[in-house]
Amino acid sequence: MPYNKRYTVPFISSPHRDKLETVKPVQWELAFWGKDYTGSVTELCLNGDDAVTLETVDNDDSRFGTTVIGTKLTANLECDARWQFDSLFVEGNRDLLVTLDYNAGTPEAPFYRRFWTGWVKPEASKEPYSPKPYFVTVSAECGLASLKDTPLTDILGKRLSGVDNISNVLRTALRLTGHELPFSEVDNLYELSLMTPQRLVNGVANPAIDPLHETKLRRDSFVTDKNLPLNALETLERIALCRGAKIIQHDGDWWFVRRSEIAGGWNPLGPVATVNRRRYAFDNFETSSAASIGLGVTVDLDGNVRALSGGTTWWQSRLKRLAVSQQFGGYVTNLKNGTFSDLDGPNQPTNWTIRNFQPGEVLRGGEGTEANPHYLELRGLASSTFNYTDPSVVQRVQISPLSLENQIYALNQEYGFTLTGRFRIQNTRGALVAVLATVVTGEGDTIIGPNGPIRQPKLGVAILKADGSWKLNPSRRDMVAIPFNHVSRIGGVEEKAENYWQKPKLGYGDIEITTAPLKGILYVDVYLKPGERLDGQPATPQSYIRYYDIRVNPEDPDVTLDGQTITEGLTLPLLESPPDPDATHYLGDVPDVALADKRLNTLLRVDGQTPTTTWYNPNDGDRLNGRNLLAYNTTERFADVASPSMVWEGELVGNLPMGPLTVLYFTDVTRNGGRPPFEIVRYRFDVQRHYHRVTAVEVRQPVTVQRQRHWDTPDGPVLQEEDPATGKEVGIVKRLDEVGKKIGKVLVSYQKKPAGGRVGADELEGYVEVDEDDELPTLYVGVKNRDTGKLIGSVAAKFRKIIDLDDFLNG
Question: Burial of 778 by CB count in 10 Å (0-12 exposed, 13-18 middle, 19+ buried)?
Fold first, then answer.
């Protein structure tokens, strides 16, 4: 859709001569561009001396409070007989484009450069009810705020998946603002793999290497709790938060700037007070240009940048402690192409095998967009009984990481997983999913393989039951698919002595089941069947089920870390539990004990597989001060609040070449023998008069603190203490071993088969009466935390006498 210029507003900016003589007049053009507009261009006039302003919106007075900073332009115009103000009324967020350009050349040879671009908001235009001429106000926003209502997708509207670098994901999200702008970034926090000797230049990091381009992430991590895409704004916030950065539009670019670098000291190119800035063209995701730039300007009462009278200063109070947490996210799905986006042929999804359907009964549909995702449609009806010859679509999913030569060792391992998905139905009861596991049940013969003798395992089969348990070596009676019904009842209709028929529900139904850990499991086969027959099944319309986003997420069989919290303070008592976090991160470094290579929120090295571990200042050639990202961010945030910080608010006149990214140095403000830098946190630019209304906060240096680290586990938080002998942190594995000592067991209930039925534990006596021909009863033993009494899971075992459980319950 083309945007053509409809209105132009030329003007010249210059401060009053009695304010600053060194600022030369600048030619500007404010323009409004209509979508699909084909008429002539009309020149408009401004009203007043402060008729065009540009300001930050929705940000607070702290340095780390807002990561994605929107900007708004406001223009006061004269509405006369040449144009109608209602032509600026818009219905959508992308109907009227606004640009602000300035002449970077000379009056004789003008060269206009883009300074800002945005969109007129539907509710942003008002006019008086009076005869012309009259004065009106119109405002536009940069587009960042609109990302709150925009799901994260690619430019074709398709959901993101797979692995990509941070830089590309940032620019993919920023493209959803509708602007084709270059991308500038100031981020020089280097990971361990980028600081190897062969990648250093003159003993420090290579400035041509972009950490955002070299660091990768899983795009599947940007999902909600219901596995739906995050909005693009929250995606930007998560990335900026993990890097300690802010995002803003300035001088025609999107900027991504690490806040700790603005005061200097991070530039591998050398100059201490400068930053290393890389810039990517809008249509180039791979190659950037790097250069040193200065963000700082000196502010005084009679220089080139002057503080006007009326400014104020105050002090922000300090915090005694700061807690920052990190969530490790869910697990990477073992099932491939669960979204059915990839095809090997017409209606043949990659990685899936179609069995025993008639032509036309399997259809891959959808557009792959958030509004219309891909799905696999299975037509017809099925019963809940399972046979290998039934019409189905199946995929084999690896569960155990063991190679063929080592499968025998699966006898000593157990794994569980969670199966999830969604579906829609027509004229059917719901989904039918069968899951069969191949397990190692013992040792078989030894054969000679290409690398020597291989101990072959004996293999068996187990089928997953609706309660998440497994039936090993199932009989024909046990071969049943798990139903996931999505129906409502129609009362008052007789059908097989039942007083209701069933009616399919609208919308999505959910597939979700968490399995018990299964010892010896190697892989599972996931079978998707057609929908189950309704009670009172009508002949029409066509019965079908559409499967969406099928996933198999592994569960760690050992102690699992869900996240961690770092608390810093000048003095900290021993905290058994972490305080409520002041900030929560969703991306970063995940420890190996938490299966770092399988967690969604793990950052990855350039190979897209190896988790990141340690980060460095690029000038740290000896690599002495490396830390993980969470530790960096906690330290940098706490430095900002650990001691009182000065805040300056007032009006400046002069050139701030970096606009809201400018770092201010006041000549009459000193600390520790030098002038501290001030970061602008609020900004309003009066374009015509070249005035800048700012709120700026002093940038503080890190201080010596006490630190405590807590690990979040299913059994509650675990404090990682320091070893008194060495002063170093105790290893996380050792601390988790101590958690195991707190685990207790309690008899929950039992189920007698084949009669069935459960009895509460308090109703059981010393023996469970069973006939010799009966199966042994299944006893459900709960696992709880001895200290808290919290039930955290259960296991099933078979015993003839309850007293035989003594060793198990008290072990």
Answer: middle
